[in-house]
Design brief:
The complex is a heterodimer. Chain A is of the alpha+beta class. In chain A, about 40% of the residues lie in helices and about 10% in strands. The chains are: A alpha+beta, B alpha/beta.
């Protein structure tokens, strides 16, 4: 047991480190040790730093503490670090026992060697710019492909040779499974083998081109991307209601099939909505970040779950494009990577301004397969695109246009400006019951609620002009209840009496008028001498339509004749004797020398003066009705109309569903650091944050100060970004070999693994960028390399030196993904329906799946063609995914998944053997064998077995295999003949038509067995 | 985890001469124990934990949040102040309830309480049978949790985090200890009550741990596991022929490719064949003696909590590591169908005798010593009533609630956790959910700070960065 472990460890070390003569490299050898064992307390996180010592920065590590430097270059003997890691006293030894981490003898040795060699630091490799490298020269002859030169170079260093090419049948099956996720037909295999034998490289070239231009390529590679997008058809959490997300899925398929460059692919998904006049397709693309969960449970705090969504968007962006574990910095500065908590929330700020709040939020309407259709007359398509683009532009500017339009209303000559009013600024003001009155910059007075009943006494020093009329303006204020002008809980007030005095003598008011009064509370009541009546502003069923209570209002009080004050003060006393806590909260006075003409209610003005958040639905409708009369709104309606006519004309669009999209709020939210990641604890001390990218990376470029998601997306795909291209090519590589060149494909930070082939990684990254981010070009490059085309057979000589196959002296055998298992079963059975896109489907599912969920999901099993769609179209409920998928390691789609696990379990065996869907396909396969090779004698049976192997494995059986299978078929035929009931239970009606129950059942049994073999489930 | 890593681990196992059965187990149902992290994380660093007191867990999850005021926590003062508005201090600014707000009135419990056993632990009249095991259980009245909605709170109770995606307690335990069963999963989930628990499969998810550690739902009726039964027409003999053919073809492929993954698949197929008999045998309780069936209140063929309790015992006997029972509908807000009157009485009748029988039965078989039984909801309920219809109900409460634990080295007859006279806050002997997790793991032989898994650059733990082993409740 121990020996075995030692072997593995030794080989790992052999691979990851080096012989004594070689130089110890910080990035490869030392940083992993320090990052894992030391940085937690001596790294970037200032809050957890001990002894003020940083070991991640050379200048800090060299500064002497007491006598010794922690690290003395060239002199390990006198470096405090070496002393501490070898300390005999467990209380002094580093790392401390409490961390439960220890250094191995080998690690200590490496540290010593590194210090003795000069303790050279390197910046973390993944944060350095992609290095421009050339493929190395290799000794082996005939190695031309750049990828092969990197791989063989390393193999030669170890004295290893690559494996021979796989045989053409394995190659075509491998390429089909990897590029389109389907089985090749026996006929295509034959053609390929023939072409291969006459010109190998041309045959491969042609096959790869054929597969990359297949519509199924977008499905195969789209599914990988959808794992990263955490795409599902339901909202998640407990209620887990269905959502219409599939237009986004179709967008991904289409984009890949069109070979959309990866930079554009990135920009449209992260910020398609912020592009100038985005197309519908670009809006649908933003569904990428609408795949976050929505908690529909009663009594939830939407803001809390909105916050969770933003966190998920930040972390997912970090994981997908940068391969970084940003999530660590949500609660504290990253302990290993140079990402501070502040920087985390600066990234957060990019995503903090979208309109969705734990709900479906903004959507665009898309109909079935709209994004995938290619049958539309190009002229009509162009017209439609143009109209939709114009519509989206008008939609985009709509809020701004409405705001501008509203402003014109407030500015138009108003019936209220019926006199030349001049502000009266009080020079004294007091409140009898102690309310605090504060004079505002605009001359208004603002009260702080507190007193029960209040009387205000205000003094003014009027100018020389005589005063004929006084205007009282009641003004809403955000500090007051319901943002009204009064301090009543609904924003109202009752001004029971208002008195005007000159030098202590009352001035009679002959007329009063107001732009708005509450029924039964006319303004005249404020001057009727009766303290039990007054002026108020509430609304009830007797009010005119659409008037607004908590908007600015005004009342005019007109004297019998102009009064000259000649230096005497004007005193105004405001009584609020009706109700408690019903006094005015915010108001101002003006004076005029003339008499205003009659005033009337202007509901539109009142509506416009009401903050949009406070408008009722009816009020909003009223405003919209008016706004719709503007020219551009008429154009918008016309465009909408024209679009629907055009769609009708083109036809075949099907039912429209709302696709969830991103949309930026007019008014951005405020972003603060959230202390310990708690959304309620805002770090006001650090203050308001603006969106920005972490300092360790190249700076964000933006044309103005308002940086947004679009800038972030551009930044991610800028040629200088050190991570995006590396991370992306590494993941693509991983799909072809089972593991990336960087094994920790989801951690390119300091805790991740060093690349096995750093130069190859950089070369591929540069190639990707240089070929305008073409994904198809990158695929073709990789799959035409001999490294990819090698045999996957295990080799004894490699088992000892490279058990993990890091050096790729052979290919890896990989079990197929869950969806592909279904797809290949469909292919073999002949039942396969290759339709692309559209709403998700319901293939048969075992009973009892919803025994464990809160709500039973609707599951109406599809009949007909939709029953045989590809696995990726099976509807995915997060709370109870389709069991076949889960059993074969489909992730839970709760958060980003960049790489699936692959297990090999008895539950999988049970599923392949017994699942009704798979068995239906086994019946289909039997039916196919009996139809394609009719007859009943022995030679026919032999032909059928050969056909079976060709259909399922793309090869012919060996004699042993053939005889073994035939023996089983014969035995089963006999057993079924003796048990007709069993035979009838095994066959379906179509098999019954073709042959006897015993024969039909025996071939169903054989087909089932082949579909359960390892080879069927594996890409070899 | 890539298959390459799996392979290396498997090499390790096969070189250890553990035989094919063990190899299969390694993948199947989590007998991979501590070697399953990354390939650089070798076993010895993880074997430093201590000898476990317990090796199995049965988690009786009362989904919805049972009311401690009607079951465990007798508060005379609450009765005295019944109908009065709750003090303002119950509604600080940051405090949230799901449905009630300022002004909610206190609700005294109508249930009568009695002290039971030598320990004198009080239980209400609704739990007479639980009273009989008072001296075997450890009653914890000072539990607090962090979240007040059902889904997130259930996730928190199971995974230590309120958002889906982290491994559940059962997954951590099977990841840590592996499974002793040759032909059953290491972590099984059973369900009773009118509907499934909120949050669904995220509650027994293996999160970022390999998916072989996720809970396997067993259904009480029909096939206990999906796809356990062969297609119609394939009897046992015919299946033997099928598995032999598949095995032979796989072996031939192995001879050619030498891929150890094929060996694993051969073993997995064999186990699948065995499970077709072992799983139904497990689920068939008709062989249990009549007095045992009566003690639980179990009836062969029924899908009930009582049956599930009995099945839990049978699973533990057969080497299943972690059994979790969900019994739903404890969410008694005060509507016609969910209130503290008849619906609560009915829930109690469904679980009281069976839960007590499980503890007694485990004890009489000597299994209680190394099996931890937990009876718990995701949170408790408020001392304030909820005014919905005319039925009595309470809102969700996270600052003080009750659960009990028995066996596995927890102190029998222990009463721990003191709340204020209205039962709103814990005033002493508080146990946070993280502390409970730390303590459970401790009894299973794990230092909760050491049982970690590296994911997205971080060593994740069940207890996140929290947790204290509550030594005071351990024997």
């Amino acid at each position: 047991m121990k020996k075995s472990f030692c072997t593995i460890l030794t080989t790992l070390l052999l691979l990851s480190s080096l012989s004594a003569a070689e130089k110890v490299e910080y990035n490869r050898d030392i940083r992993p040790i320090l990052a894992d064992k030391c940085f937690q307390c001596h790294g970037p996180d200032e809050k957890s730093r001990e002894a003020e010592l940083r070991l991640d920065l050379r200048e800090s590590a060299l500064v002497p503490v007491s006598d010794l430097s922690p690290i003395k270059p060239g002199d390990a003997e006198h470096s405090a670090v070496m002393e501490r890691v070898q300390e005999a006293d467990p209380d002094l030894r580093m790392p401390p026992a409490a961390t439960k981490k220890t250094l191995t003898a080998r690690e200590i040795e490496l540290l010593r060697e590194w210090i003795n060699q000069g303790a050279e630091y390197q910046e973390h490799w993944a944060f350095l710019p992609v290095e421009k490298v050339e493929p190395p020269e290799v000794a082996t002859e005939g190695i031309d492909h750049p990828v092969d030169r990197f791989i063989v170079h390393k193999l030669e260093e170890r004295g290893l040779t690559p494996s021979p090419s796989a045989d053409p049948r394995t190659i075509i099956r491998r390429l089909h499974l990897d590029l389109v996720g389907l089985l090749p037909t026996p006929e295509r295999v034959d053609a390929f083998v023939a072409a291969y034998e006459s010109d190998r490289s041309a045959a491969i070239d042609q096959l790869v081109d054929e597969l990359l231009s297949s519509k199924h390529y977008g499905e195969r590679w789209g599914r990988h991307w959808l794992d990263q997008a955490r795409y599902a058809d339901s909202n998640g959490y407990t209620i887990d209601g269905k959502r219409g997300m599939w237009p986004y899925r179709d967008w991904v398929i289409r984009a890949l099939n069109d070979n959309m460059p990866f930079d554009q692919f990135t920009i449209e998904q992260l910020a398609g909505d912020l592009l100038p006049a985005p197309t519908k397709s670009q809006l649908v693309a933003t569904g990428f970040h609408r795949n976050t969960l929505i908690n529909q449970e009663g009594g939830t705090d939407d803001e809390q779950f909105r916050n969770e969504e933003v966190v998920d968007r930040v972390n997912t962006t970090g994981a997908v494009w940068m391969g970084l574990t940003l999530g660590c910095a949500q609660c504290h500065s990253h302990k290993f990577d140079p990402i501070s908590q502040k920087e985390y929330y600066q990234l957060f700020a990019f995503f903090n301004h979208t309109a969705d709040v734990n709900n479906a939020g903004p959507t665009v309407k898309v109909s079935e397969r709209e994004l995938l259709r290619e049958d539309i007359d190009p002229a009509l398509r162009a017209e439609l695109d143009g109209l939709e683009r114009r519509l989206s532009e008008l939609d985009q500017t709509r809020a701004a246009r409405q705001a501008a339009w509203e402003k014109t209303i407030t500015e138009r000559p108003s019936p209220l400006i019926l006199s030349d009013w001049e502000l009266l600024k009080p020079h004294e003001y007091k409140a009898q019951a102690g309310t605090n009155l504060a004079l505002q910059d605009d001359g208004s007075l603002l009260a702080s609620p507190g007193a029960k009943q209040e009387t205000y006494t205000l003094s003014f020093q009027p100018g020389d002009e005589p005063i004929r009329s006084i205007r009282l303006r009641t003004l809403p204020h955000k500090s007051l209840p319901q943002q009204g002008p009064g301090i009543a809980s609904n924003g109202n007030f009752v001004l029971s009496e208002i008195e005007f005095l000159k030098n202590g003598k009352p001035i009679p008011v002959i007329r009063a008028q107001a732009d708005h009064s509450q029924p039964n509370y006319p303004v005249e009541h404020a001057v009727d001498g009766n303290p039990k009546t007054g002026w108020a502003i509430n609304i009830d069923e007797n009010s005119p339509p659409f008037v607004v209570m908590n908007a600015p209002h005004e009342a005019h009080f007109i004297f019998a004749e102009p009064i000259s004050f000649e230096g005497e003060p004007l005193t105004i006393i405001m009584h609020h004797d009706v109700n408690e806590e019903y006094h005015l909260g915010h108001f101002a006075f003006d004076a005029s020398s003339s008499e205003p003409s009659d005033i009337f209610e202007d509901p539109l003005l009142q509506l416009v003066n009401t903050p949009s958040g406070q408008r009722t639905a009816a009020q909003k409708n009223r405003l919209t009705e008016e706004f719709n009369k503007t020219e551009q709104e008429k154009e918008r309606a016309g465009t909408e109309n024209r679009i629907s006519v055009l769609r009708e004309q083109i036809g075949g669009f099907g039912e429209m569903i709302p696709a969830m999209v991103m949309q930026e709020l007019e008014e951005p939210r405020e972003t603060y650091i959230q202390i310990r990641g708690d959304f309620l604890r805002k770090d006001k001390e650090t203050g308001l944050l603006t969106a920005n990218t972490p300092e360790v990376f190249p700076a964000l470029e933006s044309s103005d100060d308002n940086v947004n998601r679009l800038d972030l997306a551009h930044w991610l795909v800028s040629a200088e970004h050190p991570l995006t291209a590396r991370v992306t090519v590494n993941r693509i590589w991983m799909r072809y070999f089972g593991q990336g060149l960087v094994k920790t494909e989801n951690d390119f930070g300091t805790q991740g693994t060093y690349p096995t082939h750093p130069k190859l990684l950089d070369w591929l990254a540069q190639y990707f960028v240089d070929s305008d981010w073409s994904m198809k070009k990158l695929h073709k490059l990789i799959v035409t390399s001999e490294t990819y085309l090698q045999a996957s057979r295990h080799r004894d000589d490699l088992e000892q030196v490279d058990p993990l196959n890091l050096l790729l002296a052979r290919q890896n055998r990989l079990r197929l993904d869950a969806e592909i298992l279904r797809d290949v079963s469909l292919c073999a059975s002949g039942l396969f329906n290759g339709m692309i896109g559209g709403p998700s489907v319901h293939p048969p599912q075992p009973d009892g799946v919803y025994a464990f969920t809160q709500d039973k999901k609707e599951w109406k099993t599809d009949e007909g063609a939709n029953r045989y769609r590809r696995g990726m179209y099976t509807i995915f409920y997060r709370s109870a995914p389709y069991p076949f998928l889960t059993t074969f390691n489909v992730p839970d789609m709760q958060s980003v998944c960049t790489s699936r696990t692959r297990t090999n379990t008895p539950l999988q065996s049970l599923t392949m053997a017994n699942d009704a869907t798979i068995f239906e396909m086994a019946q289909g396969l039997a039916q196919r064998l009996l139809t394609e090779i009719p007859g009943e004698d022995d030679s026919v049976n032999k032909e059928r077995v050969i056909r079976l192997f060709r259909l399922c494995y793309a090869r012919e059986p060996s004699e042993t295999e053939r005889e073994r299978v035939l023996a089983y078929q014969q035995q089963q035929q006999q057993l079924f003949a003796e048990d007709q009931d069993a035979a009838k239970a095994v066959i379906n009606p179509k098999l019954a038509e073709l042959t006897s129950p015993a024969i039909g059942a025996s071939w169903a049994a054989v087909s089932r067995a082949i579909m359960n073999t390892d080879e069927f489930l594996t890409r070899e | 985890m890539s298959s390459v890593l799996e392979q290396t681990r498997r090499h390790f196992f096969s070189d250890c001469a553990m035989g094919v059965g063990s190899i299969a187990l390694a993948n199947l149902f989590a007998n991979q124990n501590l070697y399953a992290n990354t390939e650089t994380e070798v076993a010895p660093t993880r074997l430093g934990h201590f000898t476990p007191k317990a090796k199995n867990v049965i988690y009786l999850f009362m989904a919805g949040g049972p009311s401690q005021f009607e079951l465990f926590s007798d508060k005379p003062k609450l009765r005295e102040l019944h109908g009065q508005p709750a003090p303002d201090s119950f509604f600080p600014k940051e405090k949230s309830f799901a449905f009630i707000g300022r002004g909610a009135k206190l609700l005294g419990s109508k249930r009568k309480f009695k002290q039971h056993g030598e320990s004198g632990i009080p239980f209400s009249e609704l739990l007479p049978h639980t009273g009989e095991i008072a001296d075997d259980i450890c009653m914890l009245n000072g539990i607090v949790t962090d979240v007040f909605n059902h889904g997130p709170a259930k996730l928190f109770m199971n995974t230590g985090f309120q958002v889906p995606g982290r491994p559940s307690l059962g997954s951590w335990v099977t990841y840590g200890l592996g499974s002793e069963s040759q032909n059953l999963p290491g972590f099984v989930v059973l369900q009773s009550g009118p509907r499934g628990p909120r949050a669904g499969n995220a509650l027994w998810s293996s999160g970022f741990l390999p998916s072989s550690y996720q809970g396997v739902p067993f259904r009480g009726t029909g096939d206990p596991i999906l796809n356990l039964t062969s297609p119609n027409g394939f009897n046992r003999e015919r299946e033997r022929g099928f598995y032999d053919l598949v095995g032979d073809l796989n072996q031939q492929r192995y001879d050619l490719t030498q891929d150890p993954e094929i060996k694993t698949r051969i073993a997995a197929s064999e186990m699948a064949y065995k499970m077709q008999t072992s799983a139904p045998e497990l689920m068939d309780i008709s062989s249990e003696p009549k007095h045992i069936l009566e003690m639980y209140g179990a009836e062969p063929g029924a899908n009930s909590y009582a049956n599930n309790c009995l099945l839990a015992r049978r699973m533990i006997e057969r080497g299943v590591r972690f059994v979790q029972l969900y019994h739903t509908d404890w969410d008694h807000h005060g509507n016609k169908g969910d209130n503290l009157g008849e619906p609560l009485e009915k829930r109690c009748q469904e679980v009281d005798a069976a839960s007590a029988a499980l503890v007694k039965d485990l004890k009489q078989r000597g299994l209680l010593d190394d099996t931890i039984v937990i009876w718990s909801g995701e949170f408790g309920r408020t001392p304030m009533g909820e005014e919905r219809e005319e039925y009595p109900g309470r809102d969700h409460h996270i600052d003080a609630f009750s659960l009990w634990v028995a066996g596995g080295g927890f102190k029998p007859g222990c009463l721990y956790g003191k709340t204020d006279e209205l039962g709103f806050n814990v005033i002493d002997e508080k146990i946070h959910v993280h502390d409970l997790h730390a303590t459970l793991l401790h009894q299973l032989g794990f230092d909760h700070e050491k049982l970690t898994f590296r994911f997205q650059g971080r060593d994740f733990r069940l207890t996140d960065v929290h947790g204290r082993v509550v030594e005071e409740v351990l024997a």
